[in-house]
Amino acid sequence: MGKASSYTKEEIIRGIRNKQNHVILWLYEQILPILEIYVGKMGGSSSDAKDLFQEAMIVVFQKIRKEAFEPRKNIPEYIVGICKKMWFDRLSEKQKTLNIEFLEEKDDQLGDEMLVDPEPVNPEEIKRALYLRHITALKKECREILYMVRQGITLEEISRLYGYPDARIIYNKKAYCLQKLIERIKNDPEYPL
User: Fold this and answer.
1) How far is the C-alpha of 177 from the C-alpha of 78, rounded, in Å?
2) Of 13, 113, 132, 187, which is the most exposed, with the fewest CB atoms less than 10 Å away?
3) How do residues 45-67 score in pLDDT, each as one tens digit?
4) ω before 76 within 30° of 0 (cis)?
């Protein structure tokens, strides 16, 4: 099996299992441009896309070593899905870190502010705090879906990422998650402002 314009799922699995460089290079050439566009839209770099590809290949290699590996999608789509999920997880962790740093900074400032006359409360800050408190309390899948929708990722793309055959499933999950978020916020003692 030399360099080809495409490979079957079985040829790719066999090529990865046997560590055939031409198959891995073909996958790299197929997938990297897609990842660079996706990661670029989401605030990342070409270097981030390359790192994701390498990490995803490790995951795929480990799964292929198990003889029962049989993804429903074609292998490049499967690898892209893994990469998107990894990138989303990185962004989620980054957002959590930023939220924690923001709250710690506000907490540090609060000690000093207790000594002076209080300033009027900014309703936008209260809304943001309510939103952050309750969105982080949602299940992981809900947080991920709402985040991706907010980033402009289509329901069809999200559905492919999660392996659902129909975007209506994600539409229903999004509606459910949004309803839960709104209920949580409305039931918070700090609501209404």
Assistant:
1) 26
2) 187
3) 889 889 989 998 888 888 887 76
4) no
Does residue 56 belong to any structural domain of this protein? Answer: yes
Condensed to tens digits (0 to 9), the pLDDT of residues 127-155 reads: 777 777 888 888 888 888 888 888 788 88
- Residue matched to tokens 């799964």: 63
From residue 110, how far is each of 114, 115, 133 by CA, in Å? 6, 9, 18
Same domain, 86 and 124: no
| C-alpha–C-alpha distance, residues 174 and 42, integer Å | 20
Q: Is residue 111 part of a domain?
A: no
Which of 47-55's residues contact partners 24+ apart within 8 Å by CB, and which partners?
Answer: 48/87, 49/83, 52/83, 52/86, 52/87, 53/28, 53/79, 53/83, 55/83, 55/86
Q: Name the nearest CA neighbour of 24 among 73, 79, 97.
A: 79
End position of a domain, from candidates 69, 90, 111: 90
Q: Return the CATH number at 165.
A: 1.10.10
Its pTM surpasses 0.70:
no
- Record the tokens describing residue 181, joined without a space: 């978020």
| Residue at 107 is within a domain | no
- The answer to whether 9 and 75 are in contact (CB under 8 A) is yes
Number of domains into which the chain is organized: 2
Q: Which domain holds residue 179?
A: 120-193
Q: How far apart are CA 137 and CA 157, in angstroms?
A: 25
Return the structure tokens found at 170. 């994600």
